[in-house]
Design brief:
- The protein has 105 residues and is mostly helical.
- The radius of gyration is 15 Å and the shape is elongated.
- Helix 4 crosses helix 6.
- The chain is 75% helix and 0% strand.
- The protein is built from 7 helices and no strands.
């Protein structure tokens, strides 16, 4: 079950939901939620955010897309929310993260 949910997140990180995953994988929503937390120590949402932010950091390092385009590409409609989450995780704003990476090349 846990590998299936990771595969689902990998394929649907932009707009996937736990409810949709439970339906597609034929699991009870509450059981699946509990199972994810038990096995990973993270909620579905925490794991999904980790994937989204990881993808955003990859795009910041490897593309010229704007920060706003990247936020949308990884599933964040609210740019300020994306900024806050990204800065919490990486200790840099998305722009400073990109700039610091470019200075190392």
């Amino acid at each position: 079950a846990i590998m299936e949910i990771f595969r689902y997140i990998e394929d649907n990180y932009k707009d996937g939901s736990l409810n949709e995953a439970a339906c597609l994988l034929h699991y009870d929503f509450y059981w699946l939620s509990h199972e994810i937390k038990n096995r990973t120590g993270e909620t579905y949402t925490e794991h999904l955010q980790k994937k989204r932010l990881s993808q955003a950091s990859f795009l910041l390092r490897n593309t010229t897309l704007s920060v706003e385009e990247i936020a949308l590409a990884v599933g964040y409609e609210n740019k300020s929310y994306f900024h806050r989450l990204f800065t919490e995780k990486y200790k840099y704003t998305p722009k400073k993260y990109r700039d610091s990476y470019k200075s190392k090349l």
